[in-house]
Write a structure and sequence with these properties.
CATH topology of one domain in chain A: MetI-like fold
Number of strands of chain B: 20
Number of strands of chain A: 0
Shape of chain B: globular
Largest sheet of chain B: 6 strands, mixed
Strand content of chain A: under 5%
Structural class of chain B: alpha/beta
Strand order of the largest sheet of chain B: 6-7-8-3-9-10
CATH architecture of one domain in chain A: Orthogonal Bundle
CATH topology of the largest domain in chain B: Rossmann fold
Number of domains of chain B: 2
Order of helices and strands of chain A: HHHHHHHHHHHHHHHH
CATH class of one domain in chain A: Mainly Alpha
Largest sheet of chain A: none
Number of helices of chain B: 22
Shape of chain A: flat
CATH superfamily of the largest domain in chain B: P-loop containing nucleotide triphosphate hydrolases
CATH class of the largest domain in chain B: Alpha Beta
Helix content of chain B: 25-40%
CATH superfamily of one domain in chain A: MetI-like
CATH architecture of the largest domain in chain B: 3-Layer(aba) Sandwich
Strand content of chain B: 15-25%
Oligomer: heterodimer
Distance between the termini of chain B: 41 Å
């Protein structure tokens, strides 16, 4: 077998194993929380008989390991269970929220990733000169601003003062694509501001690290222009660390945006999870936790696989 | 008709930042003038710090780091380029003048196929179309003796050997049909048996293309084989400038005479003595591999004598050192040291076992903690093995510094404040501090200039006479072997192919590999290269 296929298979298998471990951690963690689902559903005034009946019905009297396996089996077959709060099928309500979250995340990523890498390349090209200092300064400032502050500033200027965009990002299933884009413009701007600096600085640092190599001198002595030296000779050797940071930021865009969602009243996964935690709606909490974990682990697998594929030593063994 | 390159009264400066002092400007090259005509090769020779690479790169108007070309004229094809702007320089770099670096392994981009790198300049400067450039590259690959020239360019740098990369780099430099090529120590990083093939390839390619060349090296015997004229440099100044014939056969200056004369150390083989170290039938492999790096090695090292282990890179000589120190436990075989059996693994050895076998490394730089003073570095084994503290330790450190001829005042210095030779001396003192019976010296003089290396070898010999310590001396340099060895083991592909007293090993009849190895060492005479190729018994393989 080609060593790359072996490495990639190993990495994916490791990711799946990790996901299994996380599922156990989430399930037993939630189960260990004080309080009991039946009690939470029926309230303080429930009679002991009613409680016992409900426990029987929910399967709470079964051994915990069996319940875990049952839940995991359901999860694997797409049955996420039923919400305790409103009795709806979780898969359905999560599906819509997840779609919203992924839409917001991909729109932000489409802008932030190319922008961050371009700015990183420019900063590396003018290392220590004014364009570098300007880019580093501005991106540092935007990342230092807490998301809710940035959110309200953006909302004040772009929505309240100048009326360019709507202040809140309410989306409905009946909305067209362009309407949706317009609705989420403000949260996208805020998210881009938040994730830009990290990716840009990593790109710059990775490029500058490679620029020390002897083959960069070779490229300069060939008469290549500085930007060609960076793009053709430095960047291909700096991809691995950059991809790692890009993937961490993409994961953040999916699982870490609850504050921005609240600020703009956007109905995504973050808000959904927070609501469920306040309502002690454990099946929903479990489902959200698993989805977040899967996205995080999945993106990191992608990062590792890209690192493996961009390494010529692994791709073309002797 | 003007010369391809004319350098007149060149002055090069840089800013130095000595620790604890104010930055000051230093003159690297002062008032140097050279010229090269089409089809001629000029050799630049000198020790490190002589300014030869700096002068070479100035022909591209390039200064490494903070190096500045501050005075004089650099005329390339009759045009002044010393103060040319970046845009003008880009039109001539890679077009009129190209560069072959010392370490091709580092100078090729690991992420790009060789062909794309080799033809990059030809396309960039619009010299020829991609098809033409690829055809020319294949032709050059063939001319330089690379295997399978048609497909060679499809490989990545890590897929070919060091010697092949060095030839590919020469092809890369010649591809855009430049007027001048700068060769910066192109064979220094290669094994002696590989060096000779690359040298022939370069020489033929220069002759066939009629290009002008600057050939930079510290090895006079090498430059004598390829250059028409030689400029001897020292401390950034001209020592002597003349034809190769004149410099080699009739040197005028004392410094040139010292370079031309053969090594000054004369060391006679000592009489047989009981061994301090016996290696019997040792076989070793690295974890996770199914290939024996060492195969059934049996050698003895007499007490107070030197066993030189020679061979090309990959022959297993450093692995033998790792097995003896216990870093790589042997799979089979037995190590006997000072009459007792050494356990294969480091962790099972007693403190005395550890103390009595010490090591000195090739790169003294990286073998010392840069944040510790010389006193702390040498004092550490005194504390660890002999529990010396305070005044007693300080005194012993001073004794050791005296032994390595460095005197007082050095104990408080940091490694960064020492020269290359001084650093290696401190490493020797650190090894001696443990009062060892055996010191393993792994290429300890390879990174040093010839005259400095001579000093280190003399010191090692006088320490051996005084302290009775035995050396296992690993090297690829046969001149060093002649200077220091009592016994020699020649290694090739994990086996000892020849072993015995120095005189026996170096006296014919030879086996094929020893013959190849001995005949590949450049000799200081004109026409040696052609002569040796005629008389070879065995092709050097896998380079």
């Amino acid at each position: 077998m080609h060593p790359v296929v072996k490495l990639v298979t190993q990495r994916i298998a490791l990711g799946l194993l990790l996901l299994l471990a996380v599922s156990a951690l989430i399930f037993f963690g939630v189960a260990a929380l004080p309080g009991d689902t039946a009690q939470a559903m029926l309230g303080q005034s429930a009679t002991p008989e009613a409680l016992a009946n409900l426990r029987e019905k929910l399967g709470l009297n079964e051994p915990i390991v069996w319940r875990y396996l049952h839940w995991l089996g359901g999860f694997l077959t797409g049955d996420l269970g039923v919400s305790l709060a409103n009795g709806q099928d979780i898969a359905k309500s999560v599906g819509q929220r997840l779609g919203n979250t992924l839409f917001l995340a991909s729109c932000s990523a489409v802008i932030a990733v190319p922008l961050a890498i371009t700015l990183g390349l420019i900063a590396a090209r003018y290392n220590g000169r004014w364009p570098d200092k300007l880019i580093s300064g501005v991106t540092l400032a935007t990342i230092s601003l807490p998301e809710f502050v940035a959110g309200y500033i953006v909302m004040y200027f772009l929505a309240v003062r100048w009326h360019i965009f709507l202040p809140t990002s309410l989306v409905f299933s009946s909305m067209g694509f362009l309407e949706r884009l317009q609705a989420i413009a403000l949260p996208v701007i805020v998210l881009v501001m938040v994730v830009l600096a990290h990716m840009m600085r990593m790109t710059r640092a990775a490029i500058l690290n490679v620029m020390e190599s002897a083959y960069i001198e070779t490229a300069e002595l060939k008469g290549l222009s500085p930007i060609k030296v960076i793009w053709r000779h430095a960047f291909p050797n700096a991809i691995a660390p950059v991809v790692n940071v890009v993937m961490l930021n993409l994961a953040y865009l999916v699982v870490g945006v609850v504050v921005v969602e609240v600020v703009f009243a956007y109905s995504g996964m973050g808000q959904f999870l927070v609501d469920s935690v306040t309502k002690r709606d454990m099946p929903v909490v479990l489902a959200c936790g698993m989805i977040f974990a899967a996205i995080y682990i999945g993106l990191n697998i992608v990062a590792d696989v890209v690192s493996i594929l961009t390494n010529p030593r692994l791709r073309h063994p002797k | 008709m003007h010369n391809t390159l004319d350098i007149k009264g060149l002055r090069i400066e840089a800013t130095s930042y000595p620790p604890g002092e104010k930055p000051r400007d230093v003159v690297l090259v002062n008032n140097v003038s050279v010229s090269v005509q089409q089809g001629r090769v000029l050799g630049l020779i000198g020790e490190s710090g002589a300014g030869k690479s700096t002068i070479g790169l100035s022909a591209m108007s390039y200064g490494r780091g903070g190096v500045r070309l501050t005075g004089g004229h650099i005329l390339l094809n009759g045009r002044e380029i010393r103060e040319a702007g970046p845009a003008e320089l880009r039109t001539l770099r890679g077009r009129e003048v190209t560069y072959v670096a010392q370490s091709a392994a580092a100078a090729f981009n690991p992420a790009i196929r060789l062909m794309d790198q080799v033809i990059e300049t030809s396309l960039l400067h619009g010299v020829m179309s991609r098809t033409e450039a690829e055809a020319r590259a294949v032709e050059l690959f063939g001319k330089l003796g690379l295997p399978d020239p048609e497909n060679f360019g499809r490989r990545y740098p890590h897929q070919v050997s060091g010697g092949q990369l060095q030839r590919a780099m020469t092809a890369m430099a010649l591809c855009p049909k430049p007027d001048l090529v700068i060769f910066d120590e192109p064979t220094t990083a290669l094994d002696v048996t590989t060096q000779i093939d690359v040298l022939v390839a370069i020489k033929t390619a220069i002759r066939d293309t009629g290009v002008a060349a600057l050939y930079i090296t510290h090895d006079l015997a090498v430059v004598a084989q390829v250059a028409d004229d030689i400029l001897v440099l020292r401390g950034g100044k001209k020592v002597e400038y003349g034809t190769t014939d004149q410099i080699i056969n009739n040197p005028q200056e004392d410094y040139t005479k010292a370079l031309v004369s053969v090594r000054s150390i004369d060391h006679d083989e000592k009489a047989e003595a009981p061994p301090v170290l016996s290696v019997a039938g040792v076989t070793a492999r690295y974890r996770g591999t199914n290939f024996d790096v060492l195969k059934n090695i049996t050698v003895d090292l007499p007490a107070g004598q030197t066993l030189a282990v020679v061979g090309e890179s990959g022959s297993g000589k450093s692995t033998l050192a790792r097995v003896i120190t216990g870093l790589l436990p042997a799979a089979k075989g037995k190590l006997t040291f000072a009459g007792r059996t050494l356990s294969p693994a480091l962790a099972q050895r007693s403190k005395d076992d550890l103390r009595e076998v010490q090591m000195i490394y090739q790169m003294a730089d990286t073998a010392m903690n840069p944040r510790q003073t010389v006193g702390t570095i040498i004092g550490r084994p005194l504390e660890f093995y002999f529990d010396l503290k305070g005044e007693a330790k300080r005194q012993r450190v001073q004794e050791l510094l005296d032994e390595i001829e460095m005197g007082s005042g050095f104990a408080d210095r940091y490694p960064a404040e020492l020269s290359g030779g001084q650093k290696q001396r401190v490493c020797i003192a650190r090894a001696l501090a443990a009062k060892p019976k055996l010191i393993i010296c792994d290429e300890v003089t390879s990174a040093l200039d010839p005259l400095v290396a001579d000093g280190i070898l003399k010191l090692l010999l006088s320490l051996q006479a005084r302290e009775g310590v035995a050396y296992l001396f690993i090297t690829h340099d046969l001149a060093t072997v002649r200077a220091i060895a009592d016994k020699i083991a020649v290694m090739y592909r994990g086996e000892v192919v020849r072993y015995g007293g120095k005189t026996d090993v170096l006296t014919p009849p030879f086996d094929d590999y020893t013959d190849l190895l001995l005949s590949s060492v450049p000799e200081m005479k004109l026409g040696w290269l052609e002569e040796v190729l005629e008389n070879r018994k065995m092709e050097s393989a896998g380079n």
